Amino acid sequence: MIQTLIVVFVLTMVIHTAETLSYSIRYAGVKLNKIAVALSLTGIVLLVSRTSNLIQAPLTAKFVDYAEEHTSFDVLSYFRIILLAASIGTIAAIALFPTFVNLFGRIINKLEVAGSIPKLISSVTVGQLKNTRHYIKKPNLSLSQFRYLGVPNRFILLHVVVTAFYTVGVLSSLYAAHLVPAHSTMASQASGLINGMATIILTIFIDPQLGLITDKATRDEEAKNQLGKVYTMLMVSRFFGTMLAQLVIVPAGYMISVIVGWL
Predict the structure, then answer these.
(1) Range of the domain at 217
(2) TM spans, by residue (predicted)?
(3) Which of 46, 72, 125, 152 sees the fewest Cβ atoms within 10 Å?
(4) 47-105: per-residue pLDDT in tens?
């Protein structure tokens, strides 16, 4: 099972790196006043995440099946390692954020000229790929840059909680399936009980606030300059959310197992 764990670990890192780097596309779009084009590219980057998830999900479920046949197998420890991969993937995205802001700024400009993604891809040359090294930028992260951004503490805290729920959603349902083998199929499909709460918080409290912050940045030069710091803060809070998921997975798994027992 170690080989399977390595594959799942890498895929989980890819998923969280791609999802977190979507902030770099938005910021590049705001800097160029081409937010609509940037949002279209966001969907393409998230496609990488979704594709990785198609492979990762069934492989993760394999651990539960293995635990049913081998009672000494500690499935929870494997799930915690997978959650660690989520944290590492988020850290990687934070480190790559400045570089990808530059890269996606270039891609957005090229897309506007090419007119479509297929034409953009076909126009890429070896020389252009070699020139990407000029867009590499070292991250500069310090606590002082987050002091006067005007972002409510409640907003950051909710973002941490939402990230924890989303990170642990599928894993907690699989852990519940391990806890109640008699209802394992129902429990494994119950991730919506956890993700649903995250979606409600995201839709009501986070997305509108983030939309207002981004909209203000498109109209105000000072707000535009601070938007990168705001996105960095959100990525850092996302990292803490993946860490919080380590504490959430067990109670979430038990909660799902109890609800499934009532149904």
Answers:
(1) 2-262
(2) 6-23, 75-101, 155-180, 186-206, 239-262
(3) 72
(4) 777 777 778 888 888 888 888 888 788 889 999 999 999 999 999 999 999 998 888 88
**What string of H, E and C letters represents the secondary structure of the chain?**
CHHHHHHHHHHHHHHHHHHHHHHHHHHHHHHCCCHHHHHHHHHHHHHHHHHHHHHHHHHHHHHHHHHHHCCCCCHHHHHHHHHHHHHHHHHHHHHHHHHHHHHHHHHHHHHHHHCCHHHHHHCCCHHHHHHHHHHCCCCCCCHHHHCCCCCCHHHHHHHHHHHHHHHHHHHHHHHHHHHCHHHHHHHHCCCHHHHHHHHHHHHHHHHHHHHHHHHHHHHCHHHHHHHHHHHHHHHHHHHHHHHHHHHHHHHHHHHHHHHHHHC
**Residue 207 structure tokens:** 């997305």
Answer yes or no: are the C-beta atoms of 188 and 100 closer than 8 Å. no
Structural domains of the chain, count: 1
Residue 260 to residue 171: CA distance in whole angstroms: 16
Task: Kindly report the pTM of this predicted structure.
Answer: 0.86
Please state the φ and ψ torsions of residue 29, each to the nearest 5 degrees.
Answer: -65, -40
